[in-house]
Specification:
This protein is of the alpha+beta class and 132 residues long. Helix content is 17%, strand content 30%. It has 1 helix and 6 strands; from the N terminus they run ββββββα. It has a 4-stranded antiparallel β-sheet with strand order 2-1-3-4, with no helix packed on it. Strand 1 and strand 2 form a beta hairpin.
C-alpha cells in the first residue's frame, strides 16, 4: 500500500475537522448550511512522515437575497434629506430564475446625460449649417 498524505478540512475556527480524507481528493462544500458572510476554509495536510502544511482559503457566502442600496455608499458624508433606494431579490432555486424584482432601478449616470446633450448639440449645429 502506498503512503499518501492525509487532508483535514476545517471551517472557520472549528476544532473538529469538517472532513478527513486522503490525497488526492474531491470535496463538495454545501454552502446552503452556512450563514451569509465571510468564512475561511482551513486545509491541513499531513504527509506520512508527520510534516504539516496549512492553507487558508477565505470566501464569502451569499445564499440569501441580494441587497442593493442606491443613494448612499459606505463612508459617505451626507447632510439633509437623502433619498435612498433599497432592493432585495433572490435568485430563486437552481432550476428557475425569478425575473420579478431581480433588477434594481437606478438613476441615469451623468456621463449619459453629457453624451446625449453633446449629441443633440452636434445635431443642431449640423442642421443649422445645412439649412443656411
Amino acid at each position: 500500500m502506498k503512503d499518501t498524505s492525509k487532508i483535514y478540512l476545517f471551517l472557520d475556527d472549528a476544532t473538529q475537522p469538517l472532513a478527513e480524507v486522503t490525497a488526492p481528493t474531491s470535496f463538495e462544500l454545501d454552502t446552503t448550511k452556512l450563514v451569509d458572510g465571510k468564512h475561511t476554509l482551513k486545509i491541513v495536510s499531513k504527509d506520512p512522515t508527520g510534516k504539516e502544511g496549512v492553507r487558508l482559503v477565505p470566501f464569502e457566502v451569499r445564499n440569501g437575497p441580494a441587497i442593493t442600496v442606491e443613494g448612499i455608499k459606505a463612508n459617505d458624508k451626507v447632510d439633509g434629506v437623502v433619498p435612498i433606494l433599497i432592493n432585495a431579490y433572490s435568485k430563486g432555486d437552481q432550476k428557475s430564475f425569478l425575473i420579478e424584482g431581480s433588477e434594481t432601478p437606478t438613476s441615469i449616470p451623468s456621463w449619459v446625460w453629457i453624451l446625449i446633450i453633446g449629441f443633440v448639440g452636434w445635431a443642431i449645429y449640423y442642421t443649422v449649417l445645412y439649412l443656411y
